[in-house]
Amino acid sequence: MSQRSKVTVVGGGNVGATCALELARADYADVVLVDIVENLPQGKALDLNQMAAVVGFEPYIVGSNGYEETAGSEVVVVTAGRPRSPGMSRDDLVQTNEKIVGSVTEQVAAQSPDAIVVVVSNPLDAMCHVAKNVSKWPKERVFGMAGILDTARFRAFIAWETGASIKDVQTLVLGGHGDQMVPVVSATTVGGVPLTKLVAADRIESMVERTRKGGGEIVNLLGTSAWYAPGAAAAQMVTAIVLDEKRVLPCTAYLEGEYGIDGLYMGVPVVLGADGIERILEVELSDEERSALAESSEAVREVVGVLTG
């Protein structure tokens, strides 16, 4: 491989392959795609490398069934695990994916002891705890992708409702990556204009509810979890880290008193750069939003309590 930065994506399914594609298109790092299924990551890597001739990116993509090729990675994205199927909640996945994420974390930590881990596997908040406990790495280097995806869904619904460009919609979704997530309406604007000035309260509530159930809506339509938006969201986080962009993005971070929550991974706005999570930002919330965030934290704590490790 070249002297470029190296990024590993564990899990060669739809989310992992989309993340690898977006990273390759960003053109700054070589990518290792790992999966336990024989020939799958090798085939997808070959396909991606040949795509480079069409779209013009330079990074080299390697497919592997082991972890030797991942050595020296700056960032490792963990997408491995069972996806959701219709009727299955994220919480139903906890014990199955705990074993998978734990094994993956152990192996990537051995090969890349200075890496930053971005967890994507569900149930996201609980899997962040697994990765942190297994790696024993500081909280700044182990965190999850959820808020960017949830916020993207809310932004899409707002853009459709208002007829405005999605580029001009600014909002934030906090809390656990589940049905108790908290879209922050008080911090939502369209071109700087508060959403509450543009859309009736009942329509806003409808968009909030659709955002909370956004993952389930796609599962019901496709029979499996989403992959384009999650893969792109994970790639955005990797870019912020490797290029030290200091982006303010909603990520699943380990809280130690922020927002009145202690010892729990929750979605909050952070500054993301070369050191991982460099700062957690506390935004002003309405009383209703703060109460909803507390409820979300209790729901997450309940799922984390199911972990066996």
Q: What would your notes on this structure say?
A:
This protein is of the alpha/beta class and 309 residues long. Helices cover 42% and strands 21% of the residues. It has helices spanning 14-26, 40-55, 94-111, 124-135, 147-162, 201-212, 214-222, 228-242, 287-304, and strands spanning 5-10, 29-34, 61-64, 75-78, 116-119, 142-144, 169-170, 173-174, 182-183, 189-190, 193-194, 247-256, 262-273, 276-280. The strands form 4 sheets. Strands 3-2-1-4-5-6 form a 6-stranded parallel beta sheet, with helices on both faces. A 3-stranded antiparallel beta sheet has the order 7-10-11, covered by helices on one side. It has a 3-stranded antiparallel beta sheet with strand order 12-13-14. It is globular and about 55 Å long.
